[in-house]
């Protein structure tokens, strides 16, 4: 199995952090990352964690989602809502298949948003895939820890059922991909593609989707960045 | 789909009842039965139910598990522990397949035990099948509402995926089966099979398992009871 990290973003209720830790340990997951939690550590978190207080004790806090997933090769974000741009949405079962197919050395982040509002579009942009838990369309807001429980349950089943298999080449980490996207935006701007366009964020979002689905290898990123650099050099030459 | 009832037995923490109601409604389940809950109604139950307070408001309280499942054709009880006698244990996915294969008119009860100690052996005797959620062997105690969430999630998926199909003949209700088991025990006693045996409870338990797996039809129960009556008449004749 790859190394699986559960990331909770700006959780309001410490009880939910504890209950999520319990749900994780029940399914054999131990790595918890918290992005700007409102109250942590907190006695309610400890109480609801029950015997999973070791998971809480090892939890790492981060200032931003980007920081929490910087070293991950695969980042999957939960999403309750349908969005305008069609996101590649996985079910928990498909997500578990994808995760267990990762090579053992890889780090995978499963990201869960705020209790009320979930993840922002900007945070979902940091994810290669979206994850949606099928549920009653008339009442679709799962409790945070309940959502973690369902996803962790599918991961546990998949981990028992499937041998892991993956690509030979090392996939790019999240930080490498973010540098690439930054480079891409600069290059597109340099060559005048994004220049006067209000649509820049939307275009970058579509490109992220595209590359996100492709699961770029490190050497592919290097190659693409080489291409971008060439394009930039050409643009700067003309401007001179 | 058959009519699905979630039954919670002697729940200690009202918050868990509320969280279970929310988990149910998220997955399109609305029928909740409570057997001797410690505190209900309770403000913590209402708070944790969030938008599922309608499920709480409709919940029915019962004095015993037998009463709560009397009108059900299929009763499935969750079990965390391995027991001496091998119970026919289902995974949540197998359970969902079995439940969705029931005819539309049938009533199905899914029974969840106490937070600390689960269901007693006597309560499991009232169930035709056991249900075990696969989990980390080193930390296997799921929160009650988390367990309801996993089972309800599998039911929701199965309900969307599978057309229901069932037998033509009406299956026996729980109450009809209990009358049969009582008759059976009396008959076995009458014919001297259970007479001087300390093993009577264990023997009855094995017989329950056997008939439970068979899913008796009403007309089969009538037939079996006809046989028992004959055996009893013979026994009484010899005794005279």
UniProtKB/TrEMBL annotation, chains A, B:
- What domain of life does the native source organism fall in? Bacteria
In the record, which residues are listed under signal peptide?
none
Q: Which residues form the tRNA/rRNA methyltransferase SpoU type domain?
A: 4-153
State the InterPro entries in the record: Alpha/beta_knot_MTases (IPR029028), RNA_MeTrfase_TrmJ/LasT (IPR004384), SpoU_MeTrfase (IPR001537), tRNA_m1G_MTases_N (IPR029026)
| Catalytic activity, reaction form | uridine(32) in tRNA + S-adenosyl-L-methionine = 2'-O-methyluridine(32) in tRNA + S-adenosyl-L-homocysteine + H(+); cytidine(32) in tRNA + S-adenosyl-L-methionine = 2'-O-methylcytidine(32) in tRNA + S-adenosyl-L-homocysteine + H(+)
Instruction: Tell whether Chloroplast is among the UniProt keywords.
Output: no
* Gene3D superfamilies for the chain: 1.10.8.590, 3.40.1280.10
GO annotations of cellular component type: cytosol
Q: Name one GO molecular function term.
A: tRNA (cytidine(32)/uridine(32)-2'-O)-methyltransferase activity
Keywords in UniProt for this one? Cytoplasm, Methyltransferase, S-adenosyl-L-methionine, Transferase, tRNA processing
- Please name the GO terms of the biological process aspect recorded for this protein, alphabetically: tRNA nucleoside ribose methylation
Q: Does the keyword Ubl conjugation apply?
A: no
What's the EC number here?
A: 2.1.1.200
User: Could you tell me where this protein is found in the cell?
Assistant: Cytoplasm
Question: Mainly localized where?
Answer: cytoplasm
Concerning its family, UniProt says: Belongs to the class IV-like SAM-binding methyltransferase superfamily. RNA methyltransferase TrmH family.
Q: What does this protein do?
A: Catalyzes the formation of 2'O-methylated cytidine (Cm32) or 2'O-methylated uridine (Um32) at position 32 in tRNA.
Q: How does it assemble?
A: Homodimer.
Question: What protein does this entry describe?
Answer: tRNA (cytidine/uridine-2'-O-)-methyltransferase TrmJ
Q: Which organism is it from?
A: Methylomarinovum caldicuralii
**Lineage of the organism:** Bacteria, Pseudomonadati, Pseudomonadota, Gammaproteobacteria, Methylococcales
